Description:
Arc Repressor Mutant, subunit A, Chorismate lyase, 2 domains, six-stranded antiparallel sheet
Amino acid sequence: MSLAESGTVPLHQRIRAEIEGMILSGQLRPGDRIPVEHELMARYGCARMTVNKALSALVEAGLIERRKRAGTFVSRPQIHMAALAIPDIKAEITGRGQVYRYELLSRGIIAATDGDPVRLGLPPGSRLLHLTCRHLADNVPFALEERWINLAAVPEAATADFATVPPGSWLLAHVPWHEAEHRIKAAAAGPHGAALALAEQSPCLVLERRTWRQGDGADGEPVTYVRQVFPGDGFDLIARFTGS
């Protein structure tokens, strides 16, 4: 028996719960059309006011959107990325029903220097793989990524096919890590604006992250430093904490 048939809660709440369940389970995906009101009235044997109340609650929750003269559709929600986890951008985008595309913009091996902004704590001359790439969701720029990989820790990265595989996804699949540090800030798009199809003064969220894996030193062995720039709208970072 479905929740909408159980009769244990008001009908508009049961209709909302059933549609919400189909959205959250992936049965209804972002962009899918919700049945029109008269179809829902016939399905649930109820008045238009009851259906409207259920749909209005879903709109308020951000799960669906009404488009004038077009119908009601499952929303493409904001991307919520856990601030205390190592995110896989490709998985985040495809998990929300959007088409993921990736572009490698530049690749080269460089030497670390004393004034290196990467701050991986490596001695001057250490070999780093430097990558610049762009992530797109439904062909819209989603993030610009600049990444440095410590080749002493991950020598196989020097020959990895980052023209087709995003470096973040590759590292998560191939390199175990035990510690990460995130720095999150807001900034104007600046010179990154062109790659993100934004004006230079557009607000962006910048995520900087360093990761280490188990090594001989007390702090472990540096693996990578990455700076990811996201358009400010349609994206946020979340974290959940529990008390001791």
